[in-house]
Amino acid sequence: MKKYIVGFWFSLPIQLFVLHFRKYQIFLVFWYVLFATIGGTFLNNFGAYSLYLAPEYYNEVSFFSTAIVGFSLGVFIMSWNITTFILLRKHIQFLATTAQPFLKYCINNAIIPILFLLFYFFTAVQYNYQRELKTVIDIIVLCGGFSFGILLSVTIAFVYFFNADKRIFKNIGKNIVAANKRYTITSNKKILPEEKKEIRIDWFFSARMHLRKPRDVRHYSTAFLDSIFKQHHIASVLAFFIAFAVLIGLGFSSDMRLFQVPAAASITIFFALLVAVGGAFSLFLKSWSIPVVILLYIFFNFLYQENVIDPRNKAYGINYENKNERPEYNKESIYQLASEENIEKDKTEFIKRLEAWKANQAEDKPIMYLINTSGGGIRSANFTFSILQRLDSAIYNGSLMKKAFFINGASGGLLGAAYYRELYLRKQTDSSINLQSKKYVDDISKDLLNPIFSSFVSRDIIGPVQKFKESGFKYIKDRGYAFERKFNANTHGLLDKNLVDYTEVENKAIIPTMFFNSTISSDGRKLIICTQPVRFFMNSIGENKDDATPGPDMIDFNSFFAKQNSTQISVLSALRMNATFPYVLPNVWLPTNPVIDVMDAGLRDNFGQENTLRFIETFRDWLNANTSKIVIIQIRDRNIKDWDTVYNNKNLISIFTKPAFLLQYNWFRLQDYYQDAQLDYLNESYNNNINIVRFQYVPSAKNKAASLSFHLTAAEKKDIALTLNNTINIEELNKLKNITISNTLNK
Predict the structure, then answer these.
(1) Alpha carbons 60 and 447: distance in angstroms, whole number
(2) Assuming Cys at both sites, which of 138, 252, 375, 580 could form a disulfide with 410, CB separation 3.0 to 4.6 Å?
(3) Do 358 and 351 meet the contact criterion of CB atoms below 8 Å apart?
């Protein structure tokens, strides 16, 4: 028994497996990321696991989509094999003197790839059955596609390296045979140098899976053996350039649907390139690797500082070219923007919208409905759109958009609300639009995650050089551009407009006014985009304008960037600025001196209530005189009473990480505490005529909420549909009905 245990331990597969943990551990990081991503522990909140387990191609998960991902994983496995084959050459020199040494190495180095593939298949089957609700036949087809892809990739690689092996053996085969003959003839006459090994290998698998003992190679010179491995390295360099060219090609052609490959494929091929580059650095530069990386960073940072390269994302439609007319972002310019004269001017213009809205109502003192919707990725977009459909159907008979004065919110919720508002506007001239159709919910729920990650690799990292024109100006194609194009395609191009295109219909109150919010990252101020200047928002409640106060905490985009064509900003860009979740989408930088950039609105106000409170306070007199009551319809992607879900220490590490993440975990609750207190104060001053109705997405099972990402699984979509009829939302629906009915009876 001991003999077999010793033989097993000193076999080449086991020794290589151990060796990877002793040498070049950096390459194991890529395996860890793949394992952790598929297992749902890496970037789980972003839904990264779905990129691998349910990859989309042509907007569907199919045989071809999984085949492409399988092919890319095959490329990664072969890249890892060839890189480690060369780096570990001194430990496996005996393979160099055999036929097809690389093939034998791959067979004996298969433990990690096999474990990964087994884990992938198990997880993918479970995921597609439980979360994507696929049938057994569908799952077999998907697994078949993945298997086909990886087998095709590995076959192509082996054919390529088999030919390389044949060429290498042809060139040096005679030398090997001659050295073997000399060894046989002189082995009893000549004392060979003592063999020094870092690892002991007693057995290895041959190309035909037979157990073989390693050959004695002491009679070969080290230079000769190294030359064999170096010739394999030349073959791997060629394969590296082919993979690099593929990624560059995908970046330049990804506007074509045919080349919009699953993001998982782009990410995995990128990993393969990183492994190859890391291997090249280690092989050629050795201890100089880190200094060279630092020098490269300094070089590219210099180019960035000198504006030779500029990967920063921009808001499309705005003029960034005239640097002399950029507004100064400082205390003086902000205070000037928020002067009493400007505030009164904007209030006067905005009252015209209020009067237009009142003229469109049937009552002398109608109820004013204000819609606030929260962030939360595609789950919030789906839930918001579904709630608006339900309200229109159950209470307002299709007239909710007429009765609502404005829509305000953050991130995904505003995506859904913007699409619903646009469909309502189009319905005024196109009777074929059925606002209750499920196809529109399906539209807003389509995947946006795949193009973001795919573009991040093929454009942002590999080739950030492509440009396009919008409103006469040039911009760089990156993952922000990919997001807008995909969202535009999902919504059939209906939102492909400029901000100015909504000015007239909002002035006439045909549709609710919409506020697009974002957060200025440098100081936390809110940036508000509207079709007309709204500088009255800059006059915060109870603010004293002296040096002891921070000054206006909001910036009106329309007036501040008037010289930069502010009204020509793309509506898709305004929505993206509102939904710029950190790292997933790039921060949008704006043409100011000094430069500022903005990110997700949810960092400042995830529920859209801050603008609502300030609006009510600003127009208090008009609202008291012209409305019977105010109803705030809040659409939330989370339960307001989830106080029982506490942040617990799950492991030892969490004791140290908890302080760093505690504020992020409680961020939305802090907003609730503050805003509810403000709302109570305002309600008392308005004789309790402010009503708030909260519709909440509460998952059917605790701790099984839809992921906070730009992708929804079939099970998550089903869960969101079920939550429309939960107890909380039915009660709120009845509450809203009673408010509406009581106002009609009073009339």
Answers:
(1) 9
(2) 375
(3) no
| 601: three-class secondary structure by DSSP | coil
Report the distance separating Cα 483 and Cα 313, nearest Å.
12
Contact present, 343 and 536 (Cβ < 8 Å):
yes
**CB of 637 within 8 A of CB of 380?**
yes
Please confirm whether the linkage preceding 594 is cis (ω < 30° from 0): yes
Contact 93, 197 (CB under 8 A): no
Closest by CA to 705, choosing from 376, 393, 349, 363, is 376
pLDDT, position 240: 63
End-to-end Cα distance, the chain: 94
- Distance, in Å, from the CA atom of 43 to the CA atom of 33, rounded to the nearest integer, reads 10
Cβ contact 721:714 at 8 Å: no
How many whole angstroms separate alpha carbon 555 and alpha carbon 534? 9
Cα 428–chain centre separation: 35
Non-local (6+) Cβ contacts of 192 within 8 A are 218, 219
| Segments in 580-642 forming alpha helices (H) | 602-605, 609-618, 620-626
Separation of alpha carbons 586 and 260, rounded Å: 20
d(CA 409, CA 611): 9
Q: How many residues can be counted in the chain?
A: 747
**pLDDT averages per 10-residue partition of the chain, 747 residues:** 71 86 84 89 78 86 91 88 80 69 84 94 92 90 93 81 58 53 50 58 78 64 56 60 65 65 83 77 64 76 68 87 87 89 93 95 91 90 95 90 93 94 95 93 90 75 73 85 92 95 95 94 90 86 52 90 92 93 85 90 82 89 90 85 53 48 53 60 68 88 73 87 90 89 62
- Does the N-terminal peptide bond of residue 533 adopt cis geometry, omega within 30 degrees of 0? no
Write out the DSSP string of 21-36: HHS-THHHHHHHHHHH
What DSSP character marks residue 230? H
Question: d(Cα 539, Cα 557) in Å, to the nearest integer?
Answer: 15
- The residues, any chain, with a CB within 8 Å of residue 393's CB and separated by 6 or more, are 436
With 0-12 / 13-18 / 19 or more C-beta atoms within 10 angstroms meaning exposed / middle / buried, residue 496 is: middle
Residues 6+ apart with CB under 8 A from 97: 176, 180, 215, 217, 220, 225, 228
CA 279 vs. chain centroid, Å, equals 29
DSSP 340-368: HHHHHHHHHHHHHHHHHHHHTSSSSSPEE
Amino acid, res. 110: A
CA distance 260 to 257: 5
The SS3 of residue 740 is helix
What is the four-CA torsion angle of 574, 696, 441, 512, rounded to 10 degrees?
A: -50
Alpha-carbon dihedral angle through residues 603, 606, 610, 612, given to the nearest 10 degrees = 150
User: What type of residue is 665?
Assistant: Y
Report the candidate in 709, 706, 701 with the shortest Cα–Cα distance to residue 726.
Answer: 701
Integer Cα distance of 159 and 522 in angstroms: 54
Amino acid at 327: P
Which string of DSSP letters, residue by residue, matches 55-71? --BTTB--HHHHHHHHH
User: Roughly what angle, to the nearest 10 degrees, separates helices 571-578 and 479-490?
Assistant: 110
Per DSSP, the three-state class of 467 is strand
